[in-house]
Design goal:
By secondary structure, the protein is mainly alpha-helical. Helices cover about 50% and strands about 5% of the residues. It contains 14 helices and four strands. Strand 3 and strand 4 form a beta hairpin. The longest helix is centred in the C-terminal third of the chain and has 29 residues. This is Vanadium-dependent haloperoxidase. InterPro entries: PAP2/HPO_sf, TAT_signal, V-haloperoxidase. Keywords: Signal.
Amino acid sequence: MTSPISRRGLLIAGGTTAAAVAVAATSTGFAAAHTAARIPSLELTRQVRAGADVVIAWNQALLRIVRTPGLQPPTIHPTRSFAILHAAIHNAVVATTGKGTPYLFAVHAASGASPIAAAAQAGHDVLIALYPTEAASLSRQLEASLVGAGPAQARESGIAAGRLTARLLLDLRDHDGSSAVPPPLAPGTEPGQYRPTPPANAAPVFTHWSGVTPFLIKRADRFRPEAYPDLAGRRYAAAINEVRRLGRNNSTTRTADQTVQANFWAAPIWNYWNEITQTALRTQHHDLSRAAAVFAQLTLALADAVIAFYDAKYHFRIWRPITAIRLADADGNHSIAADPTWTPLAKTPPDPSYPGAHSVISQTAATLLSQHFDPRLHLTVTSELLPGATRTFRSLQAIADEAGLSRLYAGIHTRLDHYTGQTLGHDLAHRTLA
């Protein structure tokens, strides 16, 4: 269920530098009323046109943090941080430009407040609260961001608006369930049931995440896919035999390019889509307001997609391909032969198989970004794990398709996981757009 705060107006006291207004929230979490428009000035126009790089810079700062070992709390999913960061930046930009629809609440900044200063301060304050050990580097980035933020009075007013939006967003998420202790999950004992996978047999992760309060959707369980196919049936046999052939570490049927795909997309998939969005915004020369809005909608939806796919994963608790293939003698399906030595190309993540996370995230992102950019936009994507490796695509959907299927070639998901994940992502994205 959504946070109770999204069901009523908010009255925000901002002191002498920021006034406040109460607004009602819609079912999607974005406030029903637009903030009051201001008479545009040359300085405001300049900042809006030049300010997209500020939004991108704070997105890059968070990417750097989550990619640094030890900085991301192991039981807090990174997509939550991206959502809070960009919701705060977006609301700060709306408050200082009068353009756009704020998320959950509206803050009216002092007239003439700098939107660049507001965005930078909001980004800084959110990240320092979430990653306090990074305070020094984040403060240096803030100082650099404020250089082009206009006259002193405008800058200070923007800073006040950014501080306020960051504090409010952080307060709203303070008791959202993300800090709960992940409950243990007993290993499955029956055919089809998930159990930890070799070689580490690690305990399943994020077992508590389905209980986190969503950002935009009402309930994560409403996006659960259809029941998993009968293990004795043809669909299941076809899916397992396909990953058996293509996903094995020493497969002779997987093509060279499919092996490249499996390795190219092996890093956290939300990182890729944040960088894809950066590239799309720069390619299309979007301004500050547009960049803030696109990133807010994307990251809020991706955070909800993660909550939804963990709800589905731990509802169905389907075993991974390595388990299904090694224990195939127990599944009742005579079309699948057991192979106790079968090993996938990639290390299997410690959570259930159904649906595929890469497919859910990628379809959510491609569907949402297609509303902001030409769906046939040509983009080049850089791998997070293969130094210097890039792949070029002719559409956002082509990126989503390849990213999802790469997990089949890696041997850690089946085509059933992929297609079901795409359906979940598609449905969730359209729900957030409604």
